[in-house]
Amino acid sequence: MIEVGRVVTVYGRSLMRFAAFEDKAHLLLRPGAYVKVECGGSWAYAMVVSFNLLDELYRKGRIVEELEGYPELRPARNEMIAMLVGVEEGGGIRRGVPELPRPGQKVYAASSEDLARIAGSGDIEIGRLSSDPSVPFTLSLNMLCSRHFAVLAMTGAGKSNAVAVVLAAILKKYPYSRIVVVDTHNEYVPLAGRFPNVRVVSPAGKTARLVEARYGVAPRPLEVPFWTLGLEEVAGLLRLDPSRATKQLMYLRSALQDVRRKRYPQAGADDPIYFEVEELLRELEAQGRGSRYSDRSLEDLILKLEMLLENADLRYVTRPVHSAKLYASIQAPEPRRSVEAYTRVYGQLLEPGLTIVALGGLPADAQASTASTILKSVWRLVTASVLAGSPVPTLLIVEEAHNYAPQGRWSPARDILERIAKEGRKFGIGLGVVSQRPRELSQTVLAQCGTLIALRTANPRDQDYILSSVEDV
Q1: How many Å apart are CA 398 and CA 441, to the nearest integer?
Q2: Fewest CB atoms within 10 A around its CB: which of 182, 230, 286, 433?
Q3: With left for phi above 0 and alpha for psi between -120 and 50, is residue 177 left, alpha or beta?
Q4: Could you count the other beta carbons within 10 Å of the beta carbon of residue 453?
Q5: What contacts 318, CB < 8 A, 6 or more positions away?
Q6: If you average pLDDT over residues 240-245, what whole number do you get?
């Protein structure tokens, strides 16, 4: 063991300041350097996070010139601050320390074997330790998924690359794990050419053509039938602001409930019971005819729905050919008929392997409503599998999560994303959120992430937001 210094001060429960010997300081002057100190009969490990390299005589400017050229006369003081990360236990590292180091204790440089205990105890390898390339850096997949995780950084700092590395490591070791990625900008499509169990699904038309033209991957057609959307998702497509369009939402809720109840009398406005979009349009028109006075808000709502039906980019929602044929082929009474069609439409997302839902090229409101519907379908299918005694553990990764679960404003996907963050682990749903604007991401979601992968973040407001939302940062 190489002794590198002595403990000077301990701050709080995790920070330790120590004086490094001048001839040993070079061993620690690199990112991610680790030291160890005896603690409670075992070894406590700490990562060097700050340096304070002082030359006492240079602090007095008036004697600098007199001593210039005589470096042997300059007494140096090298102080470093390290963050205690855990204590050795059973061949691995346990977070926390049984007791704090005391001033005057010897501090040693961590060896490669020590570093392997710290960084190499997980089950998926994602790289090598920068301070010692001979040591693999690993993650515990169980901890990553069961406690949720967030990848946060500014634009261009490597968020998507970091997630892609993690996904590749998972697929390499566990090729039949279930992973669904909501890919807002089609950044993960290249993974389809590297692993056999990777599927890309994308709305047919312009969006699918963009994927194929750029990556040479022909995606499966994604259909999100209108009848599977809830009130919030339909409102999102129609660009209704719940804080302003309260009357239009009232009309829409009533019409959705009525058209669903024509096939199943106990249905609510959000229940995925089959209907055709034209039925909804006729129901809204009937509401207008039933009133003695014309209502401009209802007329605007009908016009928005008609424009939606004419939008060619949204035919995967309003004119889903395959899903309509699937529903027609099922011979069963309601609600079983709709439930079976719903399960078969969205069940393909939960096939073993990685499913990339490529939404790049869609308008933002269509992305939000589509993502919300997919998140709800995963939630419903996975929770139903648990209740049926055949659980299907699933990892959900959401790119640009601040667009789907924004802090302080409404989005169709916000409620379901927050629910998955709070309750998903009970049913075997792991969540990973990726964002370049942490301060715009729901604090409820971020606070539920037990693992944080924070890359370069320059904005002080983002840094403060991360610190206020996540413990032990």
Answers
A1: 12
A2: 286
A3: beta
A4: 20
A5: 226, 277, 308, 309, 311
A6: 85
Of residues 455 and 371, which shows the higher confidence score?
A: 371
**What Rg value do the Cα atoms of the chain yield, rounded?**
28
User: Vertex 221, ends 338 and 158: CA angle to 5°?
Assistant: 115
Handedness of CA 91, 95, 100, 103 (dihedral sign): positive
Distance CA 240, CA 82 (A): 52
Letter for the amino acid at 30?
Answer: R
For the chain, how far is it from start to end, CA to CA, in angstroms? 30
Go through the chain and tell me how many residues it has.
473
Over pLDDT 70: what percentage of the chain? 93
Cα–Cα distance for residue pair 147/135, rounded to 1 Å: 25
Where is 317: in which H helix or E strand?
A: helix 315-318
Mean pLDDT of the chain: 90
Pairwise CA distance, residues 185 & 343, whole Å:
27
Tell whether pTM > 0.85. Answer: yes
Q: Above 50 in pLDDT, residue 298?
A: yes
Cα–Cα distance between 402 and 454 in angstroms, integer?
15
Position 376 scores a pLDDT of 98
127-164 confidence digits (pLDDT tens): 998 878 889 999 999 989 989 999 998 888 889 999 99
Domains of the chain: 2-123 (2.30.110), 140-225+321-469 (3.40.50.300), 228-313 (no CATH)
Taking only the tens place, the pLDDT of each residue in 159-203 is 999 999 999 999 999 999 999 999 999 999 999 989 989 999 999
What are the distances in angstroms from CA 201 to CA 208, 359, 361, 430? 8, 9, 13, 21
Beta-carbon contacts of 16 under 8 Å, excluding residues fewer than 6 positions away, are 7, 9, 10, 37, 46, 81, 82, 83, 84, 100, 101
Count Cα neighbours of 131 within 13 Å in the Cβ-side half-sphere. 21
Check if the beta carbon of residue 43 is closer than 8 Å to that of residue 88.
Answer: yes
Is residue 447's pLDDT more than 50? yes
The residue assigned the tokens 């994927």 is: 211
